[in-house]
From TrEMBL:
Pathway: Amino-acid biosynthesis; L-histidine biosynthesis; L-histidine from 5-phospho-alpha-D-ribose 1-diphosphate: step 8/9. This is Histidinol-phosphatase. Belongs to the inositol monophosphatase superfamily. The keyword Nucleotide-binding does not apply. The gene is hisN. It catalyses: L-histidinol phosphate + H2O = L-histidinol + phosphate. Keywords: Amino-acid biosynthesis, Histidine biosynthesis, Hydrolase, Magnesium, Metal-binding.
Length: 263
């Protein structure tokens, strides 16, 4: 696969930034305001804000790139066999959004032939935004950022969003691994991955994710110098399962994968 040209990278990034700004304009005024919440079939919450943001993003993408595919949390998939596919999570962390907690974000990814080449992790309340180009670099608010040089579990700060995302077997594996870390913390939704890319924490281990939860994050983490795979160490894509590991360095990633694999 031929790499994207500099002009193509800029065109796609400029477009992604513009629609991320549009998403902020819709979501921020509704934050910490009364909002109706309903439950989806999997018992996860959804609001009119989630749906409105995704609808807007899909309309903008379809207008600008009518041959591109779309994958979104609220309205599903179209044209998934296209060369380019956009992945959308309009409000990553809806539970945080509806409880007034500021650590929710909007995730956008551009995939080419099924592999993420551009990722945007946008935190509207905090006014922080990460943009990662696969194989190149990651910026936070326009400034290049890097993961830090942690290589061992014993010195790592490790995050996950909630214990509720793990099955009993997964929890046993996570618990063993995270207790070997220097410290473990809970909470953050997508924000933990931004903190990893910016060099403030060292690892995130999660499960029960959907592709739109991790496709935008993988380029952000990897282009900042980190490693992000499934629990078996395989690269992430549309067909990956919901278990992910993100680590600051290859050595730390290998240590986590080894620990998770032990009986």
């Amino acid at each position: 696969m031929e790499p994207l040209s500099a002009a193509e990278r800029k065109e796609f990034e400029d477009f992604a930034v513009a629609i991320a700004n549009n998403a902020r304009a819709l979501s921020l005024p509704r934050f910490r305001r009364p909002v109706d919440v309903t439950l989806k079939g999997d018992m996860s919450p959804v609001t009119a804000v989630d749906r409105g943001v995704e609808s807007m993003l899909r309309e903008r993408i379809e207008l600008a790139w009518p041959t591109h595919g779309l994958l979104g949390e609220e309205y599903g998939a179209t044209r998934m066999d296209a060369e380019y596919v956009w992945s959308i999570d309009p409000i990553d962390g809806t539970r945080s959004f509806i409880s007034g907690w500021p650590l929710w974000g909007t995730l956008l990814a551009l995939l080419r032939h099924g592999k993420p080449v551009l990722g945007v992790l946008d935190m509207p309340v905090l006014d922080e935004r990460w943009i990662g180009h696969a194989g190149r670099s990651t910026t936070m608010n326009g400034v290049p950022c890097r993961t830090r040089a942690c290589e061992t579990l014993a010195t790592a700060t490790l995050y996950t969003t909630t214990p509720d995302m793990f099955t009993p077997d997964e929890w046993a594996r996570f618990d063993r691994t995270s207790r070997a870390a220097y410290t473990r913390r809970f909470g953050g939704d997508c924000y933990g991955y931004g903190m990893l890319a910016a060099g403030h924490i060292d690892a995130v281990i999660e499960a029960n994710l959907m592709p739109y939860d991790y496709l935008a994050i993988a380029p952000v983490v990897e282009a900042a110098g980190g490693v992000m795979t499934d629990w078996e160490g395989r690269a992430l894509g549309l067909e990956s399962g919901g278990r992910v590991v993100a680590a600051a360095t290859p050595a730390l990633h290998a240590a986590i994968i080894e620990s998770l694999a032990r009986d």
